[in-house]
Specification:
Layout (H helix, E strand, L loop, with lengths): L1 E5 L10 H9 L3 E3 L14 H10 L6 E6 L6 H8 L5 E7 L10 H4 L2 H10 L5 E2 L8 H7 L3 H10 L3 E2 H4 L14 E5 L5 H9 L4 E3 L6 H4 L1 H16 L12
Parallel strand pairs: 1-2, 1-3, 3-4, 4-7, 7-8
Antiparallel strand pairs: 5-6
Helix pairs in contact: 1-11, 2-3
């Protein structure tokens, strides 16, 4: 079974590297699509990102695993991958759930949206995500200076238009089992929504970037969730997710 580990478009694909190594050691075939190249061609961004995820299935049965802002991409990516391969499931890791018909700015707190818009330069580009929160906040999540520098170097500048782009409707999603892994308190609401949908939910309460600092624990929690996803029946449509 192929696992497609999808990084948030706000950061780089290396955020999954250490988890991918551990999962490969457990016998999984792992693919890490790189979404950073989708940011330079102008809008629309979401279809290009979803297509990159779909291509990473390589035409084989796969489970799509999304972290953070990758979550909303999985619905369209799954629909596109379904044209080539059978998507067997979805796992959301401290991630936002799909928001069909809505953008990030529609669902994020208004004060956070205003803060991000204020960061944009005159040409409509945001600084890298690693610079949004300040050096102290990033150092708290990633205490190791080398790890912190490597992570920051992989975070791209972001087009402000991307966060205002509306996710397309995907009728019938998810149509296959889904699960949720919560890493931080900030995603309690998303985990609660997953429970309401009847999905398996696991908690590994550490922090949002635990993929980098605790990859073995994250990989282990993912493996346990994947076993539970495989035991589920195929669900009906999830209905509006917002």
């Amino acid at each position: 079974m192929r696992l497609v580990l999808v990084h948030s478009p706000f950061v780089g694909p290396a955020s999954w590297d250490a988890v991918a190594v551990d999962l490969a050691g457990r016998g999984y075939e792992v693919s890490l699509p790189d979404l950073t190249g989708t940011l330079t061609g102008g809008p629309p961004y979401i279809p290009r990102q979803a297509e990159a995820v779909a291509r990473a299935t390589a035409g084989r049965p796969a489970v799509l695993v999304g972290h953070s802002a990758a979550g909303p991409l999985l619905a369209l990516a799954g629909a596109l991958a379904g044209l080539r391969a059978q998507v067997r499931g979805y796992v959301f890791v401290d991630a936002r759930l799909p928001t069909p018909g809505q953008s990030w700015t529609d669902t994020a707190p208004a004060d956070l949206v205003a803060q991000r818009e204020a960061l944009a330069d005159a040409e409509g580009w945001l600084p890298p995500w690693s610079q949004w929160w300040g050096d102290e906040a990033l150092a708290e999540l990633l205490p190791d200076p080398r790890m912190r520098r490597a992570f920051a170097a992989g975070c791209p500048r972001l087009p402000l238009a991307m966060v205002g782009e509306v996710h397309p409707l995907v009728p019938g999603w998810p149509a296959v089992p889904a699960a949720y892994l919560q890493l931080s308190e900030a995603y309690e609401g998303q985990a609660a929504r997953a429970r309401e949908l009847g999905w398996p939910v696991a908690q590994l309460m550490t922090h949002h970037l635990a993929l980098l600092t605790e990859p073995v624990r994250v990989a282990g929690a993912l493996c346990e969730l994947l076993s539970r996803v495989g035991q589920l029946r195929q669900p009906g449509p999830a209905g509006p997710l917002g």
